[in-house]
Amino acid sequence: MTETVSGSAARRGKGARKGLKVERIFTKPGVHPYDELTWERRDVVMTNWRDGTVNFEQRGVEFPDFWSLNAVNIVTSKYFRGAIGTPQREWSLKQLVDRVVNMYVKTGLENGYFASDEDAEIFDHELKYALVHQMFSFNSPVWFNVGTKSPQQVSACFILSVDDTMESILDWYKEEGVIFKGGSGAGLNLSRIRSSRELLSSGGTASGPVSFMRGADASAGTIKSGGATRRAAKMVVLDVDHPDIEEFIETKAREEDKIRALRDAGFDMDLGGKDIGSVQYQNANNSVRVSDEFMHAVDSDGEFGLRARMTGEVVETIKAKDLFRQMAKAAWECADPGIQYDDTINDWHTNPETGRITASNPCSEYMSLDNSSCNLASINLLKFLDADGTFDIASFVKLTELVITAMDVSITFADFPTEKIAETTRDYRQLGIGYANLGALLMATGHAYDSEGGRALAAAITSLMTGVAYRRSAEIAGVVGPYAGYARNAEGHKRVMRKHAAANDTVRTLHDMDKSILAAAAKQWQDCLKLGEKHGYRNAQASLLAPTGTIGLMMDCDTTGIEPDLALMKFKKLVGGGSMQIVNHTVPRALEQLGYQQERIEAIVEYIAEHGHVVDAPGLRPEHYEVFDCAMGERAISPMGHVRMMAATQPFLSGAISKTVNMPEQATIEDIEKVYFEGWRLGLKALAIYRDNCKVGQPLSAAGKKEKDKPVAAEAPAEVRPVRKRLPKQRPATVTRFSVAGAEGYMTASSYPDDGLGEVFLKLGKQGSTLAGVMDAFSMAISISLQYGVPLETWVEKFTNLRFEPAGMTDDPDIRMATSVMDYIFRRLALDHLSFEERAGLGIFTAEERAMQANGEDPASLHDEDDVRHDSLAQSAEIARPAAVEAAPASANGARSSVEAIESRQGRTQDAPLCLTCGTKMRPAGSCYVCEGCGSTSGCS
Prior knowledge:
The longest helix has 29 residues, at 452-480. Strands 5, 6, 7, 8, 9, 12, 13, 14, 17 and 18 form a 10-stranded mixed β-sheet that branches. Strands 19-20-21 form a 3-stranded antiparallel β-sheet. The protein has a two-stranded antiparallel sheet with strand order 1-2. The chain is built from 30 helices and 25 strands. A hairpin with a 2-residue loop joins strand 24 (923-925) and strand 25. Among the domains are: 24-154 and 376-551, no CATH class; 161-347, Anaerobic Ribonucleotide-triphosphate Reductase Large Chain (Alpha-Beta Barrel), CATH 3.20.70.20; 733-879, no CATH class. Its cofactor is adenosylcob(III)alamin.
């Protein structure tokens, strides 16, 4: 599938190595991928809904026309480098992608990855094509750092280690601090630290790991409050046989009791509240590392021994089932601890001769050696679903090859936070390719998420991805050599490859799609084993499933990682400000796949738009309801449905899966015990749960707080569609005669009685019937949009500076020059109907205001607050505010994100944190949360 020929390594004097021959997938010879796209300029202005302040502003950025407003906002604010307002600031997606990809290509050429300069150019074009078409994305550190003067850190996930010495413990604090400062997360296992039941060499009693957790927690909280926009992401793991395991399990549950007591006493205990800092252990996720021995003891109601760290002797024998219940009870109370299955993790470990896997990153998807790191990338699965409902296997295979090659190249030039991490990562070259949009893909193909067919398709795709990744890794090893630690671990690595290949044969297919994908995966695993036997492998790990929070929004994905759809309704931002809720585009695609006719599809979609679910939708067969089940809403997927999906994909991943199994508030401790036990029985590597409303310190939106005070179960769902506010039959109007470069015309602008603009009609002198018709149609379109609540400011932004003939001098003293008739019209409307503050932001002033500015005076002094006129959206807010158009409605029930929109329909609040950057309620993304407004995450990205 991939040819190799003599490459540039020979020219570097390292012998006649072979270089990769890169094939074109999506691009054409002689045509740059950028040239095939339509690019447009946009303005990015992001505000905090709580106080209206501008968080970020950059105007005139350049993106492809099919990128959503949200993706543009997030990439511009998060990933563009350079000080705003300086020539060094990036302003185009082309600049961002060039900065990153050029470094990959340059490094690949210098290190003998490519057979020729032509292959390097193809690699360059293919990578840029895939990125600008949102087919995949590297993890955030790549976009932050690669190609800049900063250290070239490409990894988001780190695992540290700590030994039973004070020097090692202090190094742990320091290393975590360095990683947190860079915006990444880390995990480690504290089980080497002796327990509080053991003696020190001096004769005193040891403090135990939980006491040292307190110092690390305080350090993480301080670094966060010192300027970070999200919590310091960390994972703390303790082995189930550690003598302090019970104290560890109870740690966060006890703190939750403290939070409740302080809250009831009147203290501010919301996340980010002024009093929450007094509570300990809140900056980490805790997990218990359980062994098969322990789980068998739970199953048989047997006993289990807790062992001293120094001698290994049993210091206490306990009932395994009692300890297991204690874990479930603590998780029921505060969602911690999660669980990691030690023997399963290490049974799939490719480097057993180097050392055991003892810990994970904060989101639990990266599991590898101590003092190591992993760089991630995720593929947008929906991009490979063709219009006829088939999965483009060939393109998916080729893109996976391309991405794995790029990811391995990045380790060659990457910088790392510590020398120990640098050494391990360069020696073992762990990668983490994964995907996003699985939930959307399943729905679009007519598969229920919690179904045998859905799991078979997910398993087949995951197997194909990892099979290709390792096959490509073996090919790269044939070009530039296997990873440094391969020789001592060759048998262990090949054993795990055989386990993956064997697992592929156990998948039970149900449909033609998953059958063909699985057959392709089987071929990839055969080639992988054959090439691995010959060349070894370039990478100790290749795949995992990450949260894909920020990069999922960058790729305009409907769903993140392995998650199902959040809900059938999607919260969409509008260009020019505001937002509205629409039915997911995946829904009509799924209905078409299921065989429904267009008229029936339209009726069902309209029903979903009104009710938010499919139950009793007209003409929808009940057996198809399950296809539209989501993570939240009327038909939420059961907890075991999530566990079964994880189990279907886990055998085909080098690492694990970032996912929290959400459970309803009424779930019992026994339910959690069942989930944890089934996770072990089904072969998962790690599992975490979250029970609704189990945490007091979880902030709720303004709507949520009001609903807590007053039951809203009986309230009608909030209107979420735009509402047209028509003008009365008699309304005030102004007629303006104008002249632009000698071309005369008339503009009639009608207002609501409260002075909000609601209608515009235009007539140009000496015009033909065709132009007159076009102007009438344009006038009606503008008028109807104003009545539906689109801000006049939006139209002004779009049409000012539009350049075409006639253009030139006007007869208006406030607007002496116009670049077109449209430029004049919307400048005049702005002067007549927008407040001074709104006009100033657009750079539109009267002649008198410009004169004052020239004299060094403040033109704002001309305007009395009582005389400020508002645009149509602001005025309509007082009478019939259309909830679906606004970004920040006045009512408490106004939604600003998908989660809040769902809350308004369900009549109850969801446990999700507010974004510390923009105040929007975040949505789940794996075991983390992501803000749809600005892309910030609650964990490692």
